[in-house]
Amino acid sequence: MSIQVNALTKWYGPQKAVDSISFNATPGVLGFLGPNGAGKSTTMKMLTGFVPQTSGTASVCGYDTVKESLAVRRCIGYLPENNPLYTDMYVKESLAFIAGVHQLHNPAQRITEAIEQTGLGPEQHKKIGQLSKGYRQRVGLAQAILHNPDVLILDEPTSGLDPNQLIGIRQLIKDLGTTKTVILSTHIMQEVEAVCNRVIIINKGQIVADDTLQGLKQAHQEQSLESVFIRLTNPQPQA
């Protein structure tokens, strides 16, 4: 398994953000869904080593996220929700910096490939601060895939993209899932239906569904993923 999670729990003071969740992930695109505040971003931060869990265990590519956090980070490409970027850097300059962090042996080739994959070609000589939000998202994605990691954790990767840009990035994520383990968090249900092999829904820190797209629809007798999502996460009774 690329990712194994067992009874993972996170407390922030008196608040339990993630409540003893367990799952595994193999190559493919796993949709990780839930309403705001459900524990999605906290789970992804624990998997990437950005915050420690309170209890439970998690491993990525066989490495424990706490005991072997540096090894875990070498295996992961991470695009966080807020997409932190050095806006005073030029696009290619920032990618060269990230290549140096990862000590890539072929940085120029990988930078060229990442720019091509993410459609950054027309903007590659601009400062990041001059880019639109959509192109900044592309820079964040390019940085995440630059070192060719086995696992990608993407938190709202298509935020700010226009409909034309969405098509290309969704296809890229789908293509990456043929050889890599991709965890994709998004509120766009059409995106999940377009690219994901499997879906986990988390609500109030607990996993309430883990199945294929078709399996979820059949189990809950719904025609759309959106309907399943609302049924499982909306505390109000439906009219």
Structure description:
There is one protein chain. The protein is an alpha/beta fold and 239 residues long. It has a domain of 159 residues: Rossmann fold. The chain is built from 9 helices and 10 strands. It has a 6-stranded mixed β-sheet with strand order 6-7-8-3-9-10, with helices on both faces. It has a 4-stranded antiparallel β-sheet with strand order 2-1-4-5, with helices on one face. Helix 6 links the parallel strand 7 and strand 8. Helix 3 crosses helix 4. It is globular. 41% of the residues are buried. The mean pLDDT is 93. Belongs to the ABC transporter superfamily. Keywords: ATP-binding, Nucleotide-binding, Transport. Pfam families: ABC_tran.
CATH architecture field of the domain at 3-85 and 144-219 = 3-Layer(aba) Sandwich
What is the element string, with H for helices and E for strands?
EEEHEEHEHHHEHEHEEHH
Instruction: Give the spatial strand order of the biggest sheet.
Output: 6-7-8-3-9-10
Give the % helix. 25-40%
Strand proportion: 25-35%
What would you call the shape?
A: globular
Number of helices: 9
Report the major sheet.
Answer: 6 strands, mixed
- What's the number of extended β-strand segments? 10
Under CATH, the homologous superfamily of the domain at 3-85 and 144-219 reads P-loop containing nucleotide triphosphate hydrolases
Question: What is the CATH top level name of the domain at 3-85 and 144-219?
Answer: Alpha Beta
Strand pairing plus helix content: what structural class?
A: alpha/beta
Straight-line N-to-C gap: 42 Å
* Chain-averaged pLDDT: 93
CATH fold annotation of the domain at 3-85 and 144-219: Rossmann fold
- Based on CA atoms alone, the radius of gyration comes out at 18 Å
